[in-house]
Amino acid sequence: MAWSHKDLKKTVEDTDHPKVLVNEGICDVSTWAVHNPGACVIQPHSSRQISEAQKASWAIACQQRAMKKALLDNAVQEYLTQQTLKLEETAFKHNVTVEYLKGLVGGQTYYHNPRKVQWHNALLHAKALEVNMDRPTGTKYSLKEIQRMEELDHHITMLSEHRDMKTHGVRANNIAAA
Questions:
Q1: DSSP label at 134?
Q2: Which residues contact 141 (CB under 8 A, 6 or more apart)?
Q3: Residues 6+ positions from 6 with CB-CB distance below 8 Å
Q4: Long-range contacts made by residues 94-102, C-beta under 8 angstroms, separation at least 24?
Q5: DSSP letter at 51?
Q6: Which of 54, 59, 134, 157 is the least buried, fewest Cβ under 10 Å from its Cβ?
Q7: What is the pLDDT of residues 84-103, one digit of tens each?
Q8: Contact of 159 with 117, CB cutoff 8 Å
């Protein structure tokens, strides 16, 4: 069915769209209702009316929630104050900083990737320490030169203890391990 301009104007005029200027012969066709004149337009729902009793009930519930939240906030602040005082007292008693103590007590686990000591690397480490100790920076032996040198078996335990102390020693955080 083809719509003529006259039918469109009448349909638009019948649906009471305020943007239609019938006297001037101009139609505002920017709305969905104008493009689809045969379709029903769903009217917006008005908001439901809230009784004064419901408003009062909601206000009381809101006040109760605010009071409970304020009590909880006060309890948490009191706990944090007591904790801070106890940490300061313990840090002073044991002659450590509060930050160090917070790191120990904080409950965070500092995961690390265990790097096992290899026998070959232990020997190279010990030999490099032995032969490069008194040499200046530019004249130290390279890895290949050290590999050709004599290997020592008793240095593996020294390196193992060194690595164990470095990776598993007590510290507040991973920055202290570096």
A1: T
A2: 128, 131, 132, 135, 149
A3: none
A4: 99/172, 100/172, 102/172
A5: P
A6: 134
A7: 999 999 999 999 999 888 88
A8: yes
